[in-house]
Amino acid sequence: MKTLFSRILLIAIFLVGVKSNSQNNPNPGYWQQHVDYTMEIDMNVETFQYQGKQKLVYTNNSPDVLDRVFYHLYLNAFQPGSNMDMRLQNIADPDGRMVTNVGTKENPIIESRISKLKPNEIGYIKVASLTQNGKPLEYDVADTVLEVKLATPIKPGEKATFDMVFSAQVPLQIRRNGRNSREGIDLSMAQWYPKLAEYDFEGWHADSYIAREFHGVWGDFDVKISIDRNYVIGGTGYLQNPEEIGHGYDANKTKGPIGSGEKLTWHFKAPNVHDYTWAADPDYNHESLQVPDGPMLHFLWKDNPETNENWKKLQPVTAQLMQFFSENVGKYPYEQYSVIQGGDGGMEYAMCTLITGGRSLNGLIGVTSHEMAHTWFQFLLATNEGKHEWMDEGFGSYISALAMTEISGRTSENPHLGSYRGYIRLANSGYEQPLTTHSDRYDLNRAYGTAAYSKGAVFMAQLGYVIGEDNLKTTIKKYFDDYAFSHPTPNDIIRTAEKISGLELDWYLIDFGQTTNTIDYGVTSVEATDKGTTITLDRKGLMPMPIDLRVEYVDGTFEDFYIPLEMMRGEKPTPESTKVLSDWSWANKSFSFGVAVDKSKIKAVTIDPIKKMADVDDSNNSLTLVKDDELKNKPKIKG
Ligand SMILES: [Zn+2]
Questions:
Q1: CA of 237 to the centre of ligand 1 (A)
Q2: Which of 11, 15, 227, 585 is the most buried (most CB within 10 A)?
Q3: How far, in Å, from the CA of 206 to the mean position of ligand 1?
Q4: How far apart are the CA of 393 and the centre of ligand 1, in A?
């Protein structure tokens, strides 16, 4: 048992640790805005409407004078005719969760669920009053964005206090948030409060909520939620009054509420986050598990004899996942993390995730792994998800695949093969758009999904091929150390990789991250010469790459070769047995080299045998001179 004093000391050290990391970004001249939220929420679980009071203390760390600010009122998306509704009606492959087929299987007629919401089923946030330092403000609502004209411009380095009174209604669960989900979760409260839009070196990001995720201002949250006493809440932040609440949060782990009165007021604090999410249901089971040298894990799921066992088995695996990510990316900096059964498939939030619960154990572990991985890739390394969707979905998928391989005890030379296949299929389909596309403006959801998740994961996995796996591991940790608690950009990951590896890598970000150029290399010929054999490769695709090559001999041995890419100005570390050849410049379409071996002794020549290079046509990656069934007729090579 820890003494109370040592606990307080630990918590104090911890909070200081989190604080001192804020605005941790080594880029010269980097700045980021800061906002502290204080909110009081009163929820009516009969109508699913709530009243809110919000105080923001906003610090303008930018070098600019601000005469406007913007808030997101995300819940307004769940209204007929909203931008989200119109996009849903116009896209060729709408999200299945958001539409209903009112036709037949053969002749589907797809209807937007948002378009059918009745007045008591829509979502909204209505602003009743808004002041800046006590002065009333003028504002307009455009779809999900509140446009606010300031009474007094905020100068660089100045603070302003905004007080808002608002009322809101939780929509029927359609996407991410809502009430009364299919699994019976009463309240999934994501993207639910008036949220200040981010202003950064690229200006305002007051994006309308059309489909995708968020970019937020770092700050501290102090949130009080009053709700019927039998509701259990899970979410962002540390509960300040567990002994008044109970529901498993108190020292005695009381099942059910402690306090009297019809409602309990839950008081949470969350330091240094850029979002705040919660969920509530009267039928949640709540269990917790301490991760050694890590946070307290909370599990909240709807009591159900069919899934209870899976939710129990999920708990120790979640602790392993937490440890894996902490060791391989960077130490989890908060005191708690909650896995909560919510209304949507799975979505990452600050210190928690909301996932659907009616899953197989493997399904539960898979989604928890992916969403928890986002704690690092987007939450702590807070890239703008609208602009760089591949840095959160892709990098999250990459590290999650490694974690899943590790905890399953399997070994795999390439745990990312599924991502490679998905990307290559997209690249060959004609539907690919570059990763620079805003996540809301892909022509198809499919093209968004494969680009963000699969190509993004390949970006990272293939970077390991380019700079070497050990360099990649160090790069990921250094990227976390340098950029956690800030808003890194694509250049930051590639510059980190350059500094770690000593290689020039801008070409990699440009071709793979900003264009749809593809990789296609081929083995063209293997020719007998006076001195042995000449092997010739061709570059057929536009994207340059360094080449790993294996020459297999008929006696069962092989030799590995490495062809450095001239524009990298160096080589990745290779094993001593690998022969490093001369540089190949991108402008030359062909590359030839000689081996002092008779052609008759060569069985096959293969580019990248581990398949970590995302070559879109691997039919020409290997040239086989002697097939396996012809081998027995070949004489043995000895000595
Ligand atoms: Zn994701």
A1: 21
A2: 227
A3: 22
A4: 5
- For residues 455 and 397, the answer to whether their CB atoms sit within 8 Å is no
CA of 527 to the centre of ligand 1 (A): 49
The pair of structure tokens assigned to 369 is 């792994």
Q: How far is CA 9 from CA 12, 241, 272, in A?
A: 5, 19, 19
CA distances from 423 to 420, 426, 540, 546 (A): 5, 5, 18, 20
CB-based contact 218:206 (threshold 8 Å)? no
- Amino acid identity of residue 302, one-letter, is K
For the stretch 452-489, pLDDT in tens is: 999 999 999 999 999 999 999 999 999 999 999 999 99
Q: Are the C-beta atoms of 117 and 171 separated by less than 8 Å?
A: yes
Q: pLDDT for 121-163, tens place per residue? A: 999 999 999 999 999 999 999 999 999 999 999 999 999 999 9
Q: How many CB atoms lie within 10 A of CB 309?
A: 10
Q: How many CB atoms lie within 10 A of CB 597?
A: 15
Residue with tokens 């640790």: 17
C-alpha of residue 73 to centroid of ligand 1, in Å: 22
Query: What angle is formed at CA 353 by the lines to CA 351 and CA 358, rounded to 5 degrees?
Result: 150
Give the distance (Å) from ligand 1 centre to CA of residue 140. Answer: 32
**Residues near ion ligand 1 (Cβ under 5 Å):** 393
Cα(348)–Cα(330) distance, integer angstroms:
17
Please name the helix (run of DSSP H) or strand (run of DSSP E) that holds residue 15, with its range, or none: helix 4-20
Q: Ligand 1 center to residue 266 CA distance, Å?
A: 29
- Residue closest to 190 by CA, chosen among 342, 369, 80, 293: 342
Q: How far is the CA of 377 from the centre of ligand 1 (A)?
A: 9
pTM to 2 decimal places: 0.94
In angstroms, what is the span from residue 144 Cα to ligand 1's centroid? 23
| DSSP H or E run through 426 | helix 417-427
Asked if 455 and 420 count as a contact pair (C-beta separation under 8 A), the reply is: no
Asked if pLDDT for residue 18 goes beyond 50, the answer is no
Asked whether the CA dihedral 148, 174, 365, 440 is positive or negative, the reply is negative
Summarize pLDDT for 213-263 with one digit per residue, the tens.
Answer: 789 999 999 999 999 999 999 999 999 999 999 999 999 999 999 988 999
Ligand 1 centroid – CA 100 distance (Å): 24
85 residue type, one letter: D
Measure the CA–CA gap between 427 and 37, rounded to whole angstroms.
44
Least confident of 13-22, 46-55, 391-400, 579-588: 13-22
Spacing, Cα 380 to ligand 1 middle (Å)? 14
Cα 65 to chain center, whole Å?
Answer: 32
Distance of CA 398 from the midpoint of ligand 1 (Å): 11
How many angstroms separate the alpha carbon of residue 368 from the centre of ligand 1?
Answer: 10
Two structure tokens written together for 3:
């003494």
Residue 303: alpha-carbon gap to chain centroid: 29
- Distance (Å) from CA 586 to ligand 1 centroid: 35
How close is the Cα of 119 to the center of ligand 1, in Å?
Answer: 31
**DSSP collapsed to 3 states, 190-233:** CCCCCEEEEEECCEEECCCCCCCCCCECEEEEEEEEEEECCCEE
